[in-house]
Specification:
Strand content: under 5%
CATH class of the largest domain: Mainly Alpha
Mean pLDDT: 88
CATH superfamily of the largest domain: CHAD domain
CATH architecture of the largest domain: Alpha solenoid
Structural class: mainly alpha
Oligomer: single chain
Low-confidence stretches: 160-171
Shape: globular
Number of helices: 13
Largest sheet: none
Number of strands: 0
Length: 333
């Protein structure tokens, strides 16, 4: 995953909103600066990096919601994430098929090549959509509107002045950025812990997907506060969460592919193909063997990633990960 940019002049002991503003504006700039690389389709890393930067900002907006003055609307941010995800999902699938093609024998190789070609066609449409979404004009407007929203939501002086009036009761005592981080990390781990029961049901794809999202949000939260308010002690926790997120992410990708491959194979078993379908290289002799082979491989790989996630989660329970994380953070704040 692309390394996040440093947040300059961030003071963990200052008002939380000051740090929040710096953090949000830095991540916003990081997204916009990734535009040129994302449009260079000769290297799929560019889209990946811009997508990760967008995910970081979306996660931060969610984390900081309790500390913001106003509701932070982010439909444009979600739309951008969807456009990037549409390309990235195909990049991942194509890369996977191309890796399997190396050394594959016929007729499996022919089927894999066809599946990769299908993904390339989908990717071309997704790339065209992305190009419109991140045109120079679109990104400039995106940056201006989100900057305005961030500045309004993190305004400090205006609110302080209003609260000086006797007719207005002061809100709860402002917290500093470090204290906000402690609250956020605790909340994100609580969300992850609540989804952990999903690992007891290996076939429940939806619950495992929810756990993946919760792990991603915890990772971004720990990652954000590690260099500024957590010292070096939080880095090992960020790395541990990253490993769990990776296992759950691979698990989720495979769940999607297993469902898709299974549906396509089922059609071969239940539907009689027309001559026109066969002429488009969709005959059982071309694609069906590849689907059978690939579905079996995906199921096997899924079991490995599930085992890794389950083992790590059990280790966290045995070593009281939440307490260790809280103690490491407290030592530095």
């Amino acid at each position: 995953m692309a390394k996040a940019e440093d947040i300059e002049q961030l003071d963990c002991h200052a008002d939380a909103r000051q740090g929040i503003r710096l953090a949000l504006l830095t991540r916003l700039s990081e997204i916009c600066e990734a535009r040129e690389a994302a449009l260079d389709f000769t290297d799929i890393k560019g889209v990946h990096d811009m997508r990760v930067a967008t995910r970081r900002l979306r996660s931060m907006v969610r984390d900081f919601k309790p500390f913001l003055r106003k509701r932070f609307s982010q439909p444009k941010l979600k739309n951008l994430a969807d456009a990037l995800g549409g390309v990235r999902d195909q990049d991942v699938a194509i890369k996977y098929f191309e890796k399997l093609l190396d050394g594959a024998e016929e007729p499996i190789a022919a089927g894999l090549a066809q599946l990769a070609d299908e993904r390339r066609a989908v990717r071309e449409k997704a790339r065209a959509k992305l190009q419109k979404s991140i045109s120079a004009e679109a990104v400039q407007e995106f940056h201006e509107k989100l900057t305005e929203s961030i500045e309004r939501a993190t305004e400090v002086k205006a609110e302080a002045a209003r609260e000086q009036h006797a007719s207005e009761k002061p809100k709860k005592k402002p917290v500093n950025f470090a204290a906000a981080g402690r609250e956020i990390i605790a909340a994100r781990f609580a969300e992850l812990a609540a989804t952990g029961i999903g690992l007891c049901r290996p076939g429940n794809v939806e619950q495992l997907h929810e756990m993946r999202i919760a792990a991603k949000r915890l990772r971004y939260a720990v990652e954000l506060f590690t260099p500024y308010c957590g010292g070096g002690r939080l880095q090992e926790f960020s790395d541990e969460v990253a490993e769990l997120q990776k296992s759950l992410g691979e698990l989720h990708d495979l769940d999607l592919w297993i469902a898709e491959l299974g549906m396509r194979l089922e059609k071969f078993y239940t539907t009689r193909q027309t001559k026109s379908q066969q002429s488009r290289n969709c005959s059982p002799s071309t694609l069906q063997p590849a689907l059978v082979w690939l579905l079996g491989r995906c199921v096997k790989e899924r079991a490995e990633h599930y085992r890794d996630a389950l083992t790590r989660w059990q280790q966290w329970r045995e070593t009281d990960f939440a307490t260790r994380l809280n103690q490491a953070y407290s030592q530095d704040t």
